[in-house]
Amino acid sequence: MTEPSAFTADPSIRRLEHTLADGRALIYFDDADTTLSPERAPDLRELDPRPATATMRQDALTGEWISIAAARQNRVFLPPADLDPLAPQKPGNPSEIPSTYDVAVFENKSPSFGPELAAVTDAGPEALAELSAVGIGRTRTSIGRCEVVCFSPEHAGSFGTQSVSRARTVIEAWADRTAALSALPGIEQVFPFENRGEAIGVTLQHPHGQIYSYPYVTPRTTRLLESIERYGPGLFADLLASEQSGERMLLQGEHWTAFVPFAARWPIEVHLLPHRHVPDFAATTLEERDELSRLYLRLLRGIDALYETPTPYIAAWHQAPVNVGRDDIRLMLQVTSPRRAADKLKFLAGSEAAMGAWIGDVTPEQQALSIREAIARADAATPIEPHTEENR
């Protein structure tokens, strides 16, 4: 089996470790072309103790684990700009980040998993196998780590509104944190993602994403492992080759390809794959991250150009688990949106929500054509210069 990824950091992106007043980790990632000083203010707030780690309960009908994180009920909901908890601290706004920043990553105050971690002796394949057993009334501690990734100090925006340099810094943070979180005891899978738009359930308008570190292999990845077992180890390579020669192609670079999948579930659904086998962000090269910073911006800006207003979406970076499937599961982005028209959303009704049996609203081929045209409009409106060594 492939060993955990050996992460190669970009030396042009500065990394600064700090600690918040209640002991949570805070890491600043400074753009390669940053204008910021490396000096950062300490967090001088008086904070309540962190909530206790949540508890997981197993659904005996599916074997899946559900974390009951009641402390999350009290999280901030759509605050005004002057009370933005992800903006740099200033008088009247005792936010989570003491200093101005380019990109900042910190432990979530109200996490779904953690802050407690497994004891080193309780981690590893034996613990994972024990979690896979099924029984009635089974509970476990929701060990793990949840982090917030702030893309910008600005109050509003998303990944797609950032500069190429800033996008590259965020991608570096994803790779850095994937490597670090994968090394923690009891962590089985690391999941970077961005929720964008109130229609998705976003509670903060600040441009940000999150990273969840789970104490188990997630249900979606478990099903993927089952598909690979039935198909064979070349599933991702064959899938990529098929899409690259088809009519659902959207963008292709030297290292990455984006396409609308053959069996898209959502009205807007785009997948992106690296051309070589890469289990997670930590295994990517500097050149792969450089190209991704441009291609991913073009993709998201194209999705926004479909309509006159920004498109709500979930951008989910599926990574191989820490201890299983690393030779077979390839890093993959899946962007999904319920937007089926300018003023219409797809709601999951009986068949999808209750039975998991999906019905598509538009053919993937037609949606690919619409997205290609939108990407062309976005490229014309806001050109992104191609990558060269001079503008890296």
UniProtKB/TrEMBL annotation:
It comes from the Bacteria. GO terms for cellular component: cytoplasm. Its EC number is 2.7.7.12. One of its GO terms (molecular function) is UDP-glucose:hexose-1-phosphate uridylyltransferase activity. Pathway: Carbohydrate metabolism; galactose metabolism. The active site is at H208 (tele-ump-histidine intermediate). The keyword Isomerase does not apply. GO terms for biological process: galactose catabolic process via UDP-galactose, Leloir pathway. It catalyses: alpha-D-galactose 1-phosphate + UDP-alpha-D-glucose = alpha-D-glucose 1-phosphate + UDP-alpha-D-galactose. It is an enzyme of class 2 (transferase). Residues 244-372 form the Galactose-1-phosphate uridyl transferase C-terminal domain. Pfam families: GalP_UDP_tr_C, GalP_UDP_transf. The keyword Protein biosynthesis does not apply. Keywords: Carbohydrate metabolism, Galactose metabolism, Metal-binding, Nucleotidyltransferase, Transferase, Zinc. Residues 81-217 form the Galactose-1-phosphate uridyl transferase N-terminal domain. Its cofactor is Zn(2+). Belongs to the galactose-1-phosphate uridylyltransferase type 1 family. This is Galactose-1-phosphate uridylyltransferase. It comes from Orlajensenia leifsoniae.
